[in-house]
Amino acid sequence: MSAILRAATVRGHDLELSWRDGRPPATLPLMWLRDNCQSPASVHPETRQRLVDTFGIATDIAARAIAVEDQGRVLKIEWAADRHVSRFAAGFLAALRINPDVLPVAVSTWDRDEIGARVPSVPYPAFMGADEALKEFLEQVARFGFCFVEGVPGTPEATQGVAARIAYTRQTIFGGYWDFTANLEHKDTAYTSMAIGPHTDGTYSLDAPGYQMFHCLAAECTGGENVLIDGFRIATLMQRDAPAEFRLLTEVAIPGQYLDEGRGIHLMARRPLFRLDDAGELVQVSYNNYDRAPFALPPARQRAFYRALGTFNALVNDASLQHRRRLLPGSVLLFDNWRVLHARDAYTGYRRLAGVYLNKEDVDSRLRFLRARRGEAI
To answer: Does one domain contain both 82 and 149?
Structure first.
């Protein structure tokens, strides 16, 4: 429902906003409102960068006149000092209750049966041709942590086209676009036909890839089923059933490393398995037992850490919490590498997999832009 203002009332150095739909009142400092004026004199109309001199605004700035216009859709303020006029859309002001760097998404965690009843997907022609389908795709990725594009031609060009439709690809030690078989081209288990247990990628990177895209270009093999696990569901279960272990996994910074002596590479980074933001909300699941570097804790805490890690490992390997699917040519998978763990069964035969990494901020940016163009909350 669109936000509609009922009234705006000055309370000292603040402005109290009330709403027609009954949502709680919002109180904003007058200085904040002048500092965040969206007029062309305050925000450059082309670059969208700020032009306001924040430090030239008096902390006790006063409004000469305040009005609610356009049937509650606009707040107008005329400032006493210079008669400058600021206009704010009601939706802009209402959205301030949401941290602006976080996409407001109704996240739905899932297990095998819940996601199996409706696997998120969009058709390739619509995805490539209509922004509404692209938006639907990204909304499903934001909600469930992954989504398929179905009916994609089984070629490298089509794979790269799908990636480019979303955002630009991320360059890593594996390149930008990667296309490989079980050839051990890189020092990574993914470049073999062995089974790979549940993990996230880039635990050795200070900024782990936000999203990963897979497209199987050839599957002349037996086995090789892919597995997805919702790390946010695992966190919810541990928070409920093993709160002390969950808390420990939010505190211990686990080192990850990637070592390729032949290429002169030794990457290292540390972060907790469950990374929380400043408000205590879960923002990232980071787990790769293959890439975990040696580290030591005081003995009692080390034992507790292994117990907590064992609980997590048992959950991610619980079949009732896994979505399994054999990737075949025609189906492109994009998943949130900060949320969804992935795994793969061993296989025999020939299998060719292509894909890319995408930055968290770039994919989120595309969804934020598509929402803004439709006048939705960003």
So the answer is: no
